[in-house]
Here is the input.
Amino acid sequence: MSNDTTNVQQGIVSKGVGDDTYVLSGSLIRDNANITISDTQGSNRLLLVDGLEIVSSRASANTLELTLINGAVVTVLGAEALAYHVGGNPLTGIDGVQYNYRSFGAEALGLVIPDSGVTAGGHVVVGSSRGASQADEVSVLQQASGHSHTVSGLGTLATAGDAPALVSGRSWYTETVTYSFNQVQPEEYTSDIIPGLDTFSAFPASAEGAVRQVFDNIQTFADIRFQPVEEGGDIRFNTVEQQGNTDAFAFLPGFHPISGDVFLNALYTTLEEYAAGGSPFFSALHEIGHAVGLSHPFEGADALAADQDNTSVSVMSYTVRNVLSLDFIFDGSTLTTIPQLQFFSSEFSLFDVAAIQALYGVNTQHNLGDTVYQASFGETVREVIWDSGGTDLIDASTATGHSTIDLRPFTLSSVDVHDGLMQAAEKIESMAVTHPVVIELVTEKYQLVEAANWLYTGENNLAIAQGVWIENVTTAGGDDVIQDNAVDNIINTGAGNDIIYLGEGGFDTVDAGAGFDTVKMAVESVSVELEQQGDGSYLLAGESFAVSLAGVETLEFSDGSLGLV
Here is the structure.
């Protein structure tokens, strides 16, 4: 293996193995030559000698094309892997100014290297003192482009330490777990282990769909498969009359004949009762959690703190939150309140997903493309986004309430929130009542149920799983709050007085729309550079992040604030 230095003149140039240098000198490159440089082996560099005149350039994510003053065209394949030394001269031993591909595009060529498509740069002349003649004109853009960060796949994945309260230490050790629905009582079932066994009944067909839906949910995010069999599955489903306050129970995975078996309540027998969002479906979901190895989050040395132990983060909790809606009948003299339990979780929650992934690994193939996640009041109920790749969008553009959306992995968001007062006003309007006493009673009912944390409002209704990157978000006309993440984000907040928190990293784009909007950054104002662009927008570059800003009225820093024209 040798490390070669090549004066490029014409044709296809590739030295292969070794740390090689390709020299571009205006005095050596032949007129109108077509040159291709391709070398992905070793740590290679492109050295642009003083005086090299580039009349135009084009760049894609990994290919660079330079058109020189003498008509020669230089194409660099695998451009992202090269280092770029600008303004040096190998004869004098001067290396010039060193850049990576993205900073070379910004500083030397005056263009932003795109993640997709092609961008173009103009006329530059290489010089040893500062790289290229136009570099000073794009100083803020140079810094901003250097912070650009995209990720094509997953980030740091969940471990048992992310949800220790839920990891029981028991799991299945096969790639495929079978399940079946018992129609007759197995001989190995005994009443000393199984309460209510004398009331055993055939598992109802009406509940089978709920079970399959839960297993389908697990398969979207975990590296495990569930296969139905006629009888004798690893997990067997049964119904018995439950004892005391118990609504269902199940056994953890293991090697005992009843390990993993689930016992639901014989009281529920219809499709309507097992509809997603209802209590029987939720009980099935909870018990399947035990059957795959989850424990209760309120037990053991790693139990969740009381303020975390609720169904917003885990369906294994006994502290139920935000599951109720209200309906009313007013006959002209009597107001009857009808509570509807219809917003129970129908999928595993944020901590559950982390725990199951820690036990079984992750599904790396789910939603690999560019995915749009629609989110709105009443439709999004404790949904956890598991997304393996692509450029993705949370779309809350139809919201009529406000949203608080955190794009960072392993976080909760509240999309299109309708608090008790808002729901009361909507209900009063739909009932077409005008009597002040009725209006007061309806409003009071909503406030009481909300204060008890029973009312579904949209609070904590969306989560992003550990390891998932969601790049973009669009909201509507509410007063929204957005937190960026460490990759490039496009944040569009529409109307409303919005607050956007930045600083996690990447080169973001923010269009805050109408209203009085604020960008908040936990850095001192002297640590950023701000430049107004020709279209009235602003470009801001910090030490570890950057953003293009439109529709923003105020910037807040740790040491003060700045109003934008």
Q: What stands out?
A: Residues 189 and 276 are 30 Å apart (CA to CA). The chain has a mean pLDDT of 93. The two ends are 59 Å apart (CA to CA). The first strand starts at residue 5 and ends at 7.
